[in-house]
Amino acid sequence: MAADSNALSVALSLLINLDAALVDIVLLSLQVSLLAVCLAALIGFPLGAAVALWRFPGRGLVVVALNALMGLPPVVAGLVVYLLLSRAGPLGEWGLLFTPNAMVIAQVVLVLPILAALSRQKVEELLAEYQEQFVSLGMSRLRMIQTLLWDARFALLTVLLAGFGRASAEVGAVMMVGGNIDGVTRVMTTSIVLETSKGNLPLALGLGIVLLTLVLVINAAAYLVGEWARRRTG
């Protein structure tokens, strides 16, 4: 018990003094997750809206696939990205494996289905309200997508925060494709696993506190955005 208490006090000291190793790990984690979520949003939101608007053969299968991929196991995503980026893979010549870019790709694979599936649901709800107006105005589907995504921006911001929470808390996929290399690809989740196995509890606890705080902030922000959006539309 005394050892655990001492580890916690050292962890708090690391946080208060902004330990260089801890700060570097946190910054890289935020950089990777933010970039991954932004890329996933640029692809996932228009994709979700397009699936909501267009009727085509096999659309039901696409919807089912997007919903199923929301629960994609991280290790499976990591394995797929690893095979693509390995030297024997189709993208091996790019030399991305065991780099932050590989971790970004893995997180995009995980987050994109979440953003696409949830944005499709929201856009379909709005389309049911506005479809007659769109038809009377003779709007193109591309214009409809832009209008609906803009109208759903507050709900999509909540979705975006949920995606960021998934990305920042992920460990399996990023460890497989990033390699957990000190000073290069070591992020909060993989560092916690490594430092705990090494017995370096202060650093693991410090990173755990930062990660838990980040998750709480994300959930609080999602709640506040949702409440603010409801008051605006209420």
Automatic annotation (TrEMBL):
**Keyword set includes Membrane:** yes
Record field: transmembrane:
30-54, 61-85, 97-118, 148-167, 203-225
Q: What is its main location?
A: membrane
Tell me the ranges covered by the ABC transmembrane type-1 domain, including all copies: 26-222
Question: Matching SUPFAM superfamilies, A to Z?
Answer: MetI-like
Q: Which InterPro entries match?
A: ABC_perm_TupB-like, MetI-like, MetI-like_sf
Its localization reads:
Cell membrane
Look up keyword Transmembrane and say if it applies: yes
One GO BP on record is: transmembrane transport
Per the record, membrane topology reads: Multi-pass membrane protein
| CDD domains given in the database record | TM_PBP2
Q: Which GO terms describe its cellular component?
A: plasma membrane
Keywords linked to the UniProt accession: Membrane, Transmembrane, Transmembrane helix
Name this protein carries in UniProt: ABC transporter permease
